[in-house]
Amino acid sequence: MGRQHQQPHILMLPFPLLGHIKPMLNIAQLLSNAGLQVTFLNTEHNHHRLTQLQEFSTHFPTLHFESISNGLPKDHPRTFDLTKDMVISFKSVTKPLFRKMLAEYSRNSDLGPVTCVIVDGIMYSFANDVAEELGIRPPLQIALKEDLDQEIKTVPGMEFLLRRQDRSTITSGIILNTFDDLEGPILCHIAPLFPNVYTIGPLNALVKTKIGDDIISQCLSSSNSKPLRSVVYVSFGSIARVTRSQLLEFWYGLVNSGASFLWVIRRDMIEGVKKDDMIPMELEEATKERRFVVDWAPQEDVLAHSAVVLESNDAGVPMICWPLFGDHQLNSRWVSEGWKIGLDMKDTCDRSTIEIIIKTLMKHRREEIIKSMDRFSKLAHDSISPGGSSYNNLKKLIEDLKQYMIKKVHQQIICSFPYKEQ
Questions:
Q1: Which helix (H) or strand (E) covers residue 118, if one does?
Q2: Which of 356-363's residues contact partners 24+ apart within 8 Å by CB, and which partners?
Q3: Which residue, 50, 209, 357, 386, is the most exposed by fewest CB within 10 angstroms?
Q4: CB atoms within 10 A of CB 388
Q5: DSSP characters for 139-208?
Q6: Record keywords: Magnesium included (predicted)?
């Protein structure tokens, strides 16, 4: 109990899906690189997945990792359609364990008591309950509900949140994986509601600027001989599942478009079909010279390759979006109609639509979309460069976290709202 800890101890808690864990890990890397003590708390299932990665130990040498049970059996599929199970289990099993862990750190941890908790925004209710039990102010959450075909002029719920903030006393702020020039109008609505809004995105690019990243994958070698902007990169993320019929529609659409493609097909991605039975032999033969299919790919490195066409803002690569669930529909709408950096397939999945939309992106509207994409890519890179908004906001975040130790303010909660699920 007599130990003196000179640095704040930050506990980070992401929602247990890889699309949420990755940006939170980015934040953890940035804070740890600045000399802060960071404990990254994952569910036991995801902690095991992370530690199996070859680059795990070399990529996060100064982070402290802990795991916690989410109460689900080991054979639970943990797919998006079953996230309700995760939420229920978090409330019944994980919440009391989380509270106990915070108390244990206050008494016994070599890292010292937890100074603040950075929690994924989607974990709002979970963090709110724990915060109230500990006698600290609950975090806030923001909801956007608008007709996607209408221009957003107001943000419903802001008045409620403003009244709630008047009754609250301790929420420190929110971290947003975005940058000022991308979403300025919305950020103007959010800023008055919180003491601090830290826009520090794109996080993956900021990590490379501040720390560096030299991961290289052999799957990129298949793109090295391809012409500039000629390869379509296809990925459905870490949990989405499709039927064999949908897979074939995409495959035929890609074949008929004439494009070369790099496709990430997870072993568990196709419902009820073994990998060897997914694609007819004649279709595989027809694309042998212009396809490369892998179980996993380092997405950031792939997107930075000059031959790849689809995804993403930071890399300056236009997108074709096929929204399935969660925030996909909203994200897709912004990509297509708001920022005009790609095209939205909406809920269609047929080979002719896929063929047409790929040709449209790569030929007919190529210059228009590339021009817009290049503009936002430059703004993104400016934001993470020395003197840029995200660069400076990260510096402010680190300084504020250090001040918590000086002021002896303990167990603050900052809500993080990871931007754009990949």
A1: strand 116-120
A2: 357/320, 358/232, 358/253, 358/254, 358/257, 358/259, 358/320, 359/257, 359/258, 361/309, 361/310, 361/318, 361/320, 362/229, 362/230, 362/232, 362/257, 362/259, 362/309
A3: 386
A4: 20
A5: P--------TTS-----TTHHHHHHHHHH-----EEEESS-TTTSHHHHHHHGGGSS-EEE---HHHHHH
A6: no
- pLDDT tens, residue by residue, 79-105: 666 667 777 777 778 888 888 887 777
Which tens digit of pLDDT belongs to each residue from 279-321? 777 777 777 777 777 776 667 666 665 444 443 566 677 889 9
Catalytic residue among 20, 180, 181, 305: 20
81 is catalytic: no
The residues pairing with 39 across neighbouring beta strands, listed in sequence order, are 11, 64
Q: Is 249 left (phi over 0), alpha (psi -120 to 50) or beta?
A: alpha
Helices (H) and strands (E) in the chain, counts: 16, 12
Q: Which of 48, 81, 85, 120 is catalytic?
A: 120
User: Domains in the chain and their CATH numbers?
Assistant: 9-213+380-417 (3.40.50.2000), 218-378 (3.40.50.2000)
Which element (helix H / strand E) includes 379? helix 366-384
